[in-house]
Amino acid sequence: MRTSCLHSAISLLALLTALPAQTGNSALGIFEAQQDVGANLMPGAVAYDAAAGEYRVTGGGANIWAAVDAFHFVWRRISGDFTLTADVRFIGTGAVAHRKAALMVRQDLTPDSAYADVALHGDGLTSLQFRPAAGAETQEIRSTMNAPTRIRIERRGDSFTAFAGKPGEDLTATAPQQVSLPANVYVGLGVCSHDAAVIETAVFTNVKLEQPQPPAARYRSKITIYDIATRSTRLVYQADQVIEAPNWSRDGKFLLINTEGNLYRLPLKGSGEPKPEQIDLGPGGYRCNNDHDLSRDGNWLAFSASSPSSHQSQVYLAKSDGSGVRLMTPAAPSYFHGWSPDGKWLAFVGQRDGAFHLYRVSADGGAEQQLTSQGSYDDGTEYSPDGKWIYFNSNRSGSWRVWRMPAAGAGAGDAKAEQVTNDEWEDWFPHFSPDGKHMLVFSFPKGTTTHNDRMDGVVLRLMAAPSQKLKPAKLEILLRFYGGQGTINVNSWSPDSRQFAFVVYEPLPASP
Question: Which of 39, 108, 203, 231 has the most CB atoms less than 10 A away?
Answer without folding.
Answer: 203
